[in-house]
Amino acid sequence: MEAEFTAGGRIEVVRCADEHDPLPAGATGTVNRWDPHPLVRQLSVDWDAPHAHRRLMLVIADDADAIRLI
To answer: What pLDDT is recorded for position 68?
Structure first.
């Protein structure tokens, strides 16, 4: 099975379901760490400006956050 993400890969936010502090659609970043746990997959990203100060770990679950490789 091919890995969904790899460290150093580029991504773009399509949708962020965080109710309190969402990243806007179109925000881009570089994958820092990818932990493909069963059912809940955790993705740590170094975001590009103007979101570079953010240290948000995405927990990707069905119908929640959506990101794509760029």
So the answer is: 56
